[in-house]
Amino acid sequence: MYDIWNSLCALAVLEGKIEISKNIDNKPEESGIFRRSVGKIRGQIRDYRSGIYKSTMGIHLVEFTDHYELHVDSYDPQKYPVRHLIIDSPDTLIKPACC
Q1: What is the pTM of this model?
Q2: What angle do CA 23, 6, 69 make, to 5 degrees?
């Protein structure tokens, strides 16, 4: 069965980041593409991730109450955790000394 999430992932690869309405029929957890994950806290409900076959890149889907945000990471954190932190999420590594 065709899944809209495959097309949305391909579009995100081309665009870098896309916003998706939550009125689509298929839910990410039903697609078989994504695994539950974590991400930078931005008020989201949950995070999902998927790797890209034969690529260093990863897909990150962030679910908010009214929409999804789908973007491409240069490095899939499952395969390249250190590179992902340094390149895709450097502010995760840098914490203010005072707080």
Answers
A1: 0.86
A2: 50
